[in-house]
Amino acid sequence: MNVAANGINVNYTLDGPAAAPVVTLSHSLAADLGMWNPQMAALTARFRVLRYDTRGHGATDVPAGPYTLERLADDALGLLTALGIPKTHWIGLSMGGMIGQTLALKAPERLASLLLCDTSSRVPTEAKPMWDERIRVAETQGMEPLVEPTIGRWFTAPFRERRPDVIERVRAMIRATNPRGYAGCCHAIAGLNLTDRLSAIRVPTLVVVGEDDPGTPVAAARVIHEQIKGSELTIIPSASHLSNMEQPEAFTAAVSGFLSKVR
Prior knowledge:
The protein is an alpha/beta fold and 263 residues long. The protein has helices at residues 37-44, 69-82, 95-106, 128-141, 144-154, 157-162, 164-175, 179-190, 218-227, 243-246, 248-262, and strands spanning 2-5, 8-15, 22-26, 48-52, 88-93, 111-117, 205-210, 232-236. 45% of the residues lie in helices and 17% in strands.
């Protein structure tokens, strides 16, 4: 389904009991709302689950970039308002977690809880050239050269060998990402600098990270956990960046257990 929000058409799905509390799922860079399929059965049993494609991704509009995290957060707020959702639990992975942090600082009254998964609160200056290179590759060569390096960061080698079916689906998802949308969101991520503001977040927060995540490592998760007073930290064994897909049972158990406590 599509709805107008913050000046663009946003693709979304809304599943689960109509009267239940809402959980919103926000995906990573170079993904789409299908990334959350492993969690849907468990979450829709108890919640109204909103998934959406971020600006520049999936079937959502791809306006010219660059984008900012502030704009991506405004997209999410516009979507919630358009759908008549006053408050939601927020589960964001990687870029989705960066959007979640921005939302929690910008509009905390809209969040019942905040689940920040395989994400970071700051991109250091020395990492900016890496993001510039990804933007350059996407804009000049498209997504294909980015597929295998991304797969290598997102999943551990044993999982890549054991589950080629999952890996092939994710390859297709990366390839299907619009290069302009990818580059626009890379600009947003490269500007991430929220660590020093996180102590202002008061909503109940769970931080989740795969123990083998190279891009947003356990150390980055610990920084977020230490900055947000009262937050909880869960480290998922044998998982890299897309911990919700590599270890879906452990990931779903962690988020479901936390949501049960804060309902």
